[in-house]
Structure formats: structure tokens, C-alpha cells
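Figure S4 source data
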Amino acid sequence: MREVAAVFHRTKTVSIYPLGNDRFLVEAVLQDEIHDVHVEVEIVHPSLEIVAARSQVRNGPFTSVCDLTQPNMQRLVGMRVARGFTQQARTVVGGAGGCHRVSELIVEVAQAAYQLHFVRFFGERPAVDPSEDVPVERRQAVLQTIPGMRNTCFSYNEANDGLIATSSPLRLREQVMPRRELP
């Protein structure tokens, strides 16, 4: 085997920070050789309504021109992350009048925002030892608490109910959570 260097590398990071009460800041960053794009969306849980949105193209093919698309973000305010959001949001911030990279990050923001349901779901329960995790019970509890998950993917597809009993227990990965100063 020989080692080769990639000719392209892009990273995306998404973090969610509590702002107080049920309000959260979802921050997404995309970076590659040319791009450094930053998006922030403030969202209310559990409705997932966007109450503030902003973007900044810190570096791009034509940085100062690309950054002129940031007013498009204001059109996201009032929208809710739910079925159909991704297509609608990409239309608002992408296309010929927007920025494709911001559009990519809005998809990441939406996916992360939906994770708030799980963050809160698991945060309200005592930590479970993986040896005591019962996948069928955990899935039922998730579907009772977050009914919008039903039929959204293979694991939550009702047609696959019987497969869940064969699943391995949940394994949580340890992570060092990022920190940042908030105004």
C-alpha cells in the first residue's frame, strides 16, 4: 500500500449552545482550501422555530461579494425545522441569489436542531449502563416522546419493528464539547 495525500478536504462542524430557557444557538462552520463560511441560527425548542439567523462568508471565491448574500438569512426567521424545511430553506439561502455553502450549512443546522429532541430526551433520564440498555424499550420511549421520528429512517421505520430486538445496546461516544463566549 502507498500513502497519498488528498487533493481536496472539507470539514463541517456543528455545535449547539444553550442560550437560556428553551432557546439555543446552532452554529455551523464549513472550511476547505477556499471557503470559511459561518452560520448561526437561534432556535426555540421544542417547536424548532427559528428566531434569529445570520451568516458570514469569511473567505470564499469572491469573499466580499459572496458575503452580500447574508441578508437572505433573515427570511429563515419564523420558519420551523420540520418536514419540508430543508428544501424551503435551501431555496431561501441558496441558488442564483444565494450561497451554496450557506445552503449546505443550513441543512447541517436543521439536522442538528432536530437532535435537540434527543439531547433533551436523554438529558432528562438517568445515564443508562450499556449492559442495561434495552433497544426495544428505548425506541418505544423515543417514539412516544418524539413521534415525528416515526418512519424517518430505517431504524424508526415501522416495517422494521422486529429488527430492533436484534440491535446492540446504545454506546455513547465520549466527546470534549466546544465552548465559546456568547454576547
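Figure S5 source data
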Amino acid sequence: MDEEYALRMFLEKTLAQAEAMFREQFSLHWEDLTYMRAPAFRFYLPAAIKYLLSEDANGDADAASTFCYVLESRLARDPAALIPIAPAVEDAIQKILANFDRFECSPEAYGDVPSRYKALADKLVA
């Protein structure tokens, strides 16, 4: 997924419009977050978080797992993108973990996603 595609997908979208995109099919848009430039990432990340924290994300194991990957990838590749929003991301991680079972994210299919989120949270507060 190239950056140009990510910008076309989100160009001039409001946060509400971006959240609707995530709600419709998170699996089509998580890569956009992974590869877009840092300012766009910081702008649109709250829309993804809002979806994940909503009841609409219940049963969306793919979203729970891939969102973790997005954060891991950004932290490894572009940690500066997360620094200004680290407290909000860490708060979102804690809320995701508080009721993680609702995503129905089986360890057999996805591995130990909660442990990955915990490791991310530890790195963000360090």
C-alpha cells in the first residue's frame, strides 16, 4: 500500500467520515494508517480508536489484531509519529485491553494479541 493511495483514501475526510470507513470495513483501511505520513496518521488515528472502542467493534478480531500491528509498525518504523499522541494511544490500549474478550480474538488464530498491546503500552510510557 503506497502513501499516495492512503492519502487518496482519506483526502479531506472528516474524522466522522473516516470512522465510518473503519466501521464499514476496518480490514480495508488499516494499511492506510500504517503507511500514511505522520501528520495524517495522528489526525486519523482517533477515528480508528473510536471505532475499536465502540460496540460496533464487538466480534471484530481482525480489527483488534491489525490495529495492534499498525501501532507496532509505526513504533518500529516511525516512533516520532506516536510521541505527540502517546498518552492518548496508551489510554486507548488500556481501554481495548479492559474488555478484550469482546473482540473474540482467538489465540489460535491471532496469537497473544493482549500481550502485544501490553508490550506496546510499556514502550509508550517508557
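Helices lie at 3-10, 15-25, 30-35, 38-53, 61-77, 86-98, 107-110, 113-125. The mean pLDDT is 88.
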